């Protein structure tokens, strides 16, 4: 079997668990942990920004549907006032109402996707707290 302590620096008394060896291990592990945390942060922020841009696209879509709804509803109102009780105005009113409902739905969906809480790097924060707890247990234990 291979020696599990092979490659570790030997202390003054020749033991593999010397202060220098432990400090070197701690420094390497801390550096590796910091790299992993930064990579996690970048990945999470990339996903959050993607969600933000999707929400922005939904808001633009909502604005387009809102403009169409206003035009159709205005046309419906004019036709309704012109003909008073004809079915053409009622049809235009229904179409305008449908576009307005679509615009409201897209706006609400876009607003929820763009909220600040979706941009918070929650996984990174949770991982950093867990790593700090593990490190403090290692130091004290």
TrEMBL record:
List keywords of the entry alphabetically. Membrane, Transmembrane, Transmembrane helix
Work out whether the entry's keyword set contains Transmembrane: yes
UniProt superkingdom: Bacteria
Q: Which positions, given as ranges, span the membrane?
A: 52-77, 89-109
Please report the name of this protein according to its UniProt entry: Phage holin family protein
* Originating organism: Methylobacterium aquaticum
